[in-house]
Amino acid sequence: MANYINNGNGNFNGYNGFNNTINGTPVNNNGYGFVNNGMNGGNNNVYRPPVQNFNAESVIQEIDTAILALMQGRVGNIMYVRDTLLRLQKEGKIQIVGGGQNRVAIALVADDSRLRQMYNMNGPMIIMVPVKLPEGIRDNNRAAQGYFKIANSGMDQSPDMALVRATYLPSYLLPNSYLLVQKRAIRIEDCDGVKKLIASGKYDANKQLALACRDYIVTNPHIYNQYSALITAYDKYFVMADLDVEFSPWNFGFVIEGNKEILVIIDYGYMTPRDYPLLCPSCGQPLHYCIPGEPFLKDKALSALQVSVDTFGQYSCKNLSCNGGKGNGTDIPYYRPDIEVFMDYSERYGRI
């Protein structure tokens, strides 16, 4: 899924192709434009505000137009939307803050306060742009539908729902648009804890960033307990994929409350409401998302399942009396990769 590169506070690093221009006007590090003062022989610089002939709405329209052109077959280049984003970034209209196969996350350069006000979104936001069609559009739809479900679940006062409500980042489809606006979080690779791990010299920043992100969650008891509680709670309300921290640490991040890091999921593209039973085909018990390191997996008889969970997300009935899965010559509970469970469930109940 997404491997976004941003520092979570609105500043972007060189991996995103940032150059010091806004709409073609050279700027200094504070974003102010300067020109030579002709009255003094051109030897001094004086301030001139950069001229912007765009706003948030016009940039959004440009992106939607590109998506529509690709959908309607008016352009033959399947990379057309991605190329459009690269052009808009070069023109100083957006910053690309990360991207995956299906979607790219951007931040608007123009003032987006009206949009944030419209959705009662405190703090910075990102826009998720579908670049692989129709998959990216489906991902955006799922993210918005999931948030709508949670935001309208007032009758459920369980602790699990309280946790999901508190951690599901506000996500809305823009009207008459293919774009999703989402509250911005600090990505796992940009949090202070991971930066300290990299600075310690124990990890190669170029080759082991994913490992450092994984270790920060798994080996830190406070963060791991949050991760375990998060997956347990979301598993009650969603069928999901790509949330095994051993395989996909990039899909997590943090929001800061006071001086506390609150772990959150930041990519909801592979989550769909669990409105119908999800049962083991062998024993008939409910299937649940496996959590790396959970007590259930410490049974030596389940070593094959544990190895699978350590490499890729898995669902299992977690019924020790079930013999639906085979491993090491012993009968073990049924298990299946999360993406297969997610896709089958989505197809069966029309949620693709």
Q: How does the major sheet shape up?
A: 6 strands, antiparallel
What level of helicity do the residues show? 25-40%
**What is the beta-strand fraction?**
15-25%
Give the number of DSSP strands.
20
Strand order of the largest sheet: 1-6-7-8-10-9
Low-confidence stretches: 1-43
Please give a handful of descriptors for the protein shown.
three-stranded antiparallel beta sheet; 32% helix; disordered N terminus; alpha+beta; 352 residues; globular
Structure, explained:
It is built from ten helices and 20 strands. With 352 residues, the protein is of the alpha+beta class. A hairpin with a 2-residue loop joins strand 2 and strand 3 (25-26). Helix 1 (56-71) runs antiparallel to helix 2 (80-90), helix 5 crosses helix 8 and helix 6 (192-199) packs across helix 7 (209-218). The longest helix is centred in the middle third of the chain and has 17 residues, at 135-151.
Topology:
Elements: E1 3-4, E2 21-22, E3 25-26, E4 34-36, E5 45-47, H1 56-71, H2 80-90, E6 94-99, E7 103-108, H3 113-118, E8 125-130, H4 135-151, H5 159-167, E9 171-173, E10 180-183, E11 186-187, H6 192-199, H7 209-218, H8 221-237, E12 238-240, E13 252-257, E14 260-265, E15 271-273, E16 288-289, H9 303-309, E17 314-316, E18 325-327, E19 330-332, E20 335-337, H10 338-348
Antiparallel strand pairs: 1-6, 2-3, 4-5, 6-7, 7-8, 8-10, 9-10, 11-13, 12-15, 13-14, 16-17, 17-20, 18-19
